[in-house]
Amino acid sequence: MRFDYTRWQGPGPDDIERIRQLMEIYRNLLLQTGGDVEEALKWMEHFGREYGFLDDKFGIEDFKKLLEQTGEAERTPQGFQITPSGERRIRQDSLNEIFSSLRAGGPGDHRTPVAGKGGERLSETRPWQFGDDIANLDPLGSVSNMVKRQGIDDLTLGEEDLEVFEQENASACATVLMVDVSHSMILYGEDRITPAKKIALALAQLIQTRYPKDTLDVVLFGDDARQVKLGDLLAIQAGPYHTNTRAGLQMARSILAARKGVNKQIFMITDGKPSCIHEFGKLYKNPFGLDPKIVNKTLEEAVQCRRKRITITTFMLAADHVLLEFVRKLTELNHGRIYETDPQNIGAYVFRDFVRNRRKRLH
């Protein structure tokens, strides 16, 4: 039998880097189009021709085949659609992007400082207590205690000799992520809704993969508030709405009331002032300035959250002094937190604060 060998013709480093960049462009366009694969591919073909990252050697049809081969998208009678695997990869990309500067044991490591049951095994040990799982027994430490107590002549292991490993106690946390979908989130050509969407996707991936006992709910607030499923995160879009912050807080508080987690918190991402509330079955709105009636009703809801031990962390995407003063007042009344940030760094701040909230009991 004869074998003929030729030089390996597989993709080189440059090809792999190009594919990585193409995937990054595609996934960002997918976020922009609310998960519409067909529309994202049309924009990709347009930009590919304009900027030259698609050519005769590797065109849009080749990229479509790549999406099918990797399982990120599939052909259907209605056209290309994202697959569950594709959604997971976008969530993981968002998580990786936000956590790129965080390391285990640092700001991104959200373990509690209290040892207990249900977490990973630690290196520290302690004397065995009634009710401890025997699977956590430290055999060497237990035998050492026995020898120290009675020497090597009479090796009888007693209850007082038993030593067990400590376990990390990962406290359950219930979180509601409030996302402002009012018109100002896309006003004047600024896209603030996409960074907010990335945060929601990254939080979902983090909790589902590392903290399955935690809960994450998403509430969108515009003229009114509505809860959306985690599977619908890609489709979040801003619309021609006012900002009913009060309705968002009310819905978040109602959701958290049904959660059993020790820690309960709200992350609110917004770039605008509260500009409407529901009153007597109608929508009372005033987009000009800070309306005292709207402001006071919203602040009252922040106080109600504090009484229920729900901490509000606000991520403000605007630098207007008057609006910041309002958010600072809301934060003061709630005993919460505020981050004055922008769409480029909001993700890391969200996770760093989420981590700190996990490390201690919220009051």
Characteristic terms for this protein:
Rossmann fold; 18% strand
Strand order of the largest sheet: 7-6-5-8-11-12
**Poorly predicted tracts of residues:** 8-13, 101-117, 359-363
- Average pLDDT confidence is 82
Proper CATH architecture of the largest domain: 3-Layer(aba) Sandwich
Give the amount of beta strand, in percent. 15-25%
Q: What would you say this structure looks like, in words?
A:
The chain has 3 domains: 13-82; 121-167, no CATH class; 173-359, von Willebrand factor, type A domain (Rossmann fold), CATH 3.40.50.410. The chain has 10 helices and 12 strands. It has helices spanning 13-32, 37-51, 60-70, 84-98, 139-150, 193-210, 245-257, 292-307, 321-334, 346-359, and strands at 73-76, 79-82, 121-127, 163-167, 173-180, 215-221, 225-228, 263-270, 276-279, 282-285, 311-316, 337-340. It has a 6-stranded mixed sheet, sandwiched between helices. It has a two-stranded antiparallel sheet with strand order 1-2. The radius of gyration is 26 Å and the shape is flat. Mean pLDDT is 82; it is low at 8-13, 101-117 and 359-363.
Concise summary:
By secondary structure, this protein is an alpha/beta fold. The protein is 41% helix and 18% strand.
Give the topology, please.
Blueprint: H1 13-32, H2 37-51, H3 60-70, E1 73-76, E2 79-82, H4 84-98, E3 121-127, H5 139-150, E4 163-167, E5 173-180, H6 193-210, E6 215-221, E7 225-228, H7 245-257, E8 263-270, E9 276-279, E10 282-285, H8 292-307, E11 311-316, H9 321-334, E12 337-340, H10 346-359
Parallel strand pairs: 5-6, 5-8, 8-11, 11-12
Antiparallel strand pairs: 1-2, 3-4, 6-7, 9-10
